[in-house]
Amino acid sequence: MIRHLFKLIWNRKRSNFLLITEIFFCFLVLFAVLSLIVYNVRNYNKPLGFEHENVWLLTMRPDTDSTALNRQTLEQIIQRAKGFQEIEHVALTNSNAPFAFSQMNNDLSYGQKKIMADEYLVQDDFDKVMRMQVSHGRWFGEQDNASHHYPIVINKVLQQQLFEGEDPIGKLLPRNDSSSYQVVGVVDHYRPSSEYTAEEPGFFNRIHLPGNKNDFYGELLIRVKPGTGVEFEEKMVKEFSGIGKGWTMEVATLEKMRQNKAKMAKVPMIALAIICGFLILNVALGLFGVLWYNISRRNGEIGLRRALGASANQVYRQFIGEVLVLATFGLVLGVAFAVQFPMLQVFEVESAVYFIALGIAVGLIYLLAIGCAFYPSRQAAAIHPAMALHEE
Amino acid sequence: MITLKNIEKVYQTKTIETVALHNVNLHIPKGEFVSVMGPSGCGKSTLLNIMGLLDEPTNGIVEIDGKPISRYRDKELAHIRNQKIGFVFQSYHLINDLSVLDNVELPLLYRSGTSASETRHLALTALEKVGLSARTKHYPTQLSGGQRQRVAIARALIGQPELILADEPTGNLDSVMGEEIMNILLTLNRQDGTTIVMVTHDENMAQKTERLIRFFDGQQVSDAKTTAYDFQQV
C-alpha cells in the first residue's frame, strides 16, 4: 500500500506541487524557529556556574577625576560594606558583572593556539559572593600577592580550547607586555551573559587594590543575607553616599538584571514563534481546504476502491497515508536543506541543536498533516460507495 | 451463488419517497450469464449495487453462497467484494493517474498475502486475457474507450472472482468495440465458469446471454432463458 501511495502522489506531483512547496517552506520556518528555541532551552538547562540570588550590584560613579581620592573613598565604602551585618561578602568587579550589558575580551595564546576569551576582573572574594566552585587548582588568595605573574582562573571551555588534554595549572600565558598570566585554577562553568546564551571561553583576572593603584573599579557585588530588602538598600546607599559625597550610586539586584537579560532572549523567540504559528495555521488551512476539495473531486475513485474491496477504514487510512506521503515529499526537500546547517556548522551552534530541531520539526509537520487530514479522511470513509459511483 | 429474497429499496428524502425496487426475488446460480434490461430509472443499477454489496436493501434478504449477509459488518462486506465479486462499469472507472498495470493491480491491494511479484504476474495474465499486454505502461487517457473497458475487465478478473457485475459495459462503446467486450465476457463465462450479471440497454447483447431478466418501475416483469445463447460461437 505504501508503494501504491508513493506512486499515486508521485504521478500527481504536478497538482500537488504547491502543497509540497508549502510544506517545504513551513518546515524550514519551523526548523529555524525550533533551532532557536532548542538552542535557548539547552542553554537554559545548563548550569550558570554561580548563584545570583541575594546578590546586588552597586554601581558607583565618582564626581572627581582624582584617582587617588576616589580609590581612598572606594576603600572606605568597601570597609563600611563589610561592617554591615546584613552583608555576607563583597567583591569589586569591572563593568561586565553577571547579567550586565557589557563585555570585555582579550586574546590568550598558548603554543600555536590563540583564543579570544572573555575577561572578568574580580576581587578575591568574588567566589564567595557568587558562590562559585573551583574544580581544579584554586581561587585567588593572599599567596598571589608575591607572584611575578598575573594569576588567572579559567573556565573549562577555555581550558578545552586552549590546552586540550593538558593540565593548565601553572601554565604561563604571555600578556601584551613582557609579563605573563599564570593559570591557578579552573571553574567548571561561568555564563554571566544570560541563561540563554552559550558558554564562551573566559577567564578571571585578579583585582588586587594595593597592587594596581591607578585603576578605579566602580562595580561592587554584594551578597546580602536572605530576606534583606529595600529598607536595608536605602540605609546602605545613604551611608555610602555619606562617604562618597557627590557620587552617583545605583543598586540593582542580579535577579532583576537576569530578568532583563532573559527578556531580550525571550522576546524574539516569542515573536518568531507567533509568526511561525500563523504560518502553520495558514498551511493547515490550505492543507485542509485542498484535502477537502480533493476528496469531493475523488468521489468516483472512493466508490471504486470500496467496490474493489476497500473497507471504510482502509479508505480513511489511505487518505491519511496520502497526506503523510505528500508531507514526506516536502520534508525530504526540507531535511536535505536543513542538514546542511549541522554539517557546515552554521552559526557555530552545536550539531545536536539542529538535529533536535529537525526531529521536532519533522514530527510537527507529520502531526499537522495528520491533524488536517483527519476530518476530510473520515468524510471520505463515510462516503456511500453506491452513491459515489452513481455521481461519477 | 447469489439469492435475493423479497428485496425492496426505497430512497427517502424529506419530501419524497422513491421506490427503486419492489419485491424482487432472484436466484443467480453459479456459472450463469444473466442480463438485466429495462428502461432508465427502473432500478437495474440499484439491483446491481445490492448484489454487489455496495448498497443495502430497505427490506429483504441477500444471500451469498447461501449465507445471509445482513448482519455482516463493513469490513466483512468489503472482504466478500474483494474475494468474490468483480465490477465492470459503463464509464470504466479507471484512475487516470495510474498506469494500466497499476489500475489492474488495484483489487489485490486490498487482499493480504499476495506478494508484489505475484500481483504483477496476475495483472499481466489478466491483461493478456483481454488482449492488452502491449499497453501495460500506458495511462487510461492514452487509450480508446474499448481499450479502457478491457482494462476495467482485466481489473475485475485479477482477483479471480466468482461473480462479475457489469453495469452497461458496452454502453459507451460503438458496436464493434461493444462486440469485442461482449465476446470477452462470454469467453470468461464459458471457459472459466465465471458468473456474470450484466445490465444492458442493448437487446442484441442481452440475447447473447443465457438468461434475461426484465425490470419495469422497480419490479421484475420477466425472467426467461434466451434462445441464442447455446448456439453462439465465441
Automatic annotation (TrEMBL), chain A:
A GO MF label: transmembrane transporter activity
Main location: membrane
One GO CC term on file: plasma membrane
Protein family (similarity comment): Belongs to the ABC-4 integral membrane protein family.
Cellular localization per UniProt: Cell membrane
Signal peptide: none
Membrane-spanning intervals of the chain: 16-39, 269-294, 315-339, 351-375
Domain ABC3 transporter permease C-terminal stretches: 274-385
Key words of the record: Cell membrane, Membrane, Transmembrane, Transmembrane helix
Domain MacB-like periplasmic core residue range list: 32-194
Protein name: Putative ABC transport system permease protein
Pfam families, alphabetized: FtsX, MacB_PCD
Topology term for the membrane: Multi-pass membrane protein
TrEMBL record, chain B:
Alphabetized InterPro entries for the sequence: AAA+_ATPase (IPR003593), ABC_transporter-like_ATP-bd (IPR003439), ABC_transporter-like_CS (IPR017871), MacB-like_ATP-bd (IPR017911), P-loop_NTPase (IPR027417)
Matching CDD domains: ABC_MJ0796_LolCDE_FtsE
ABC transporter domain location: 2-234
Assigned GO CC terms: membrane protein complex
Keywords: ATP-binding, Nucleotide-binding, Translocase, Transport
Gene3D superfamilies attached to this UniProt entry: P-loop containing nucleotide triphosphate hydrolases
Gene Ontology molecular functions: ATP binding; ATP hydrolysis activity; transmembrane transporter activity
One Pfam family here: ABC_tran
PANTHER family for this protein: CELL DIVISION ATP-BINDING PROTEIN FTSE (PTHR42798:SF6), LIPOPROTEIN-RELEASING SYSTEM ATP-BINDING PROTEIN LOLD (PTHR42798)
Family designation: Belongs to the ABC transporter superfamily. Macrolide exporter (TC 3.A.1.122) family.
Record-given protein name: Putative ABC transport system ATP-binding protein
Organism per entry: Pontibacter virosus
Taxonomic classification: Bacteria, Pseudomonadati, Bacteroidota, Cytophagia, Cytophagales
